[in-house]
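FORM 12-B: Structure-to-Sequence Request
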């Protein structure tokens, strides 16, 4: 319990505390802040980055990165099959958007869009909108593939021959 306040109420008490606090921040803490070396160190003091932390940072991958790698691997594996429905598109260096839905992986529309964004970020497909391409009576929305992406997919096929 608090004691009953029996003194005269000072209406300037709050302002006096604010003034004192402001003075302390400008003078005492200001000197401490000015003495910190914020340009050289992350926390103004040397903080070593351990080998384990560096390895953890380097091995960090997102679920989208893993799924994008899986799409690329599946496309490469399925390309080996001569009856693969999108083979003509791949040979013409077009990536059919429908392949992501066929690939599966629990692809919702937003997940499919994230996979496409990731392929664009990696510069494996053009950043432009997909175009409707028709090859041998099969019409699909496709992105133009980069030469690097084409080589990634067809390299296993060339090794098998």
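FORM 12-B RESPONSE
SEQUENCE OUT:
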């Amino acid at each position: 319990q608090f004691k009953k306040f029996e003194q005269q109420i000072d209406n300037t008490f709050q302002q006096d505390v604010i003034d004192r606090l402001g003075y302390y921040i400008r003078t005492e803490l200001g000197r401490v802040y000015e003495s910190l070396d914020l340009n050289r160190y992350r926390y103004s003091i040397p903080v070593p980055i351990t080998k384990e932390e560096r390895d953890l940072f380097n091995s960090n991958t997102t679920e989208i990165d893993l799924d994008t790698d899986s799409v690329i691997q599946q496309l490469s594996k399925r390309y080996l099959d001569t009856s693969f429905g999108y083979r003509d598109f791949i040979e013409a260096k077009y990536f059919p958007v429908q392949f992501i839905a066929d690939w599966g992986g629990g692809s919702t529309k937003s997940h499919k869009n994230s996979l496409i964004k990731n392929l664009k970020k990696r510069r494996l497909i053009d950043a432009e909108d997909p175009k409707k391409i028709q090859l041998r009576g099969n019409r699909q929305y496709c992105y133009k593939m980069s030469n690097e992406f084409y080589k990634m997919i067809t390299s296993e096929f060339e090794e098998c021959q």
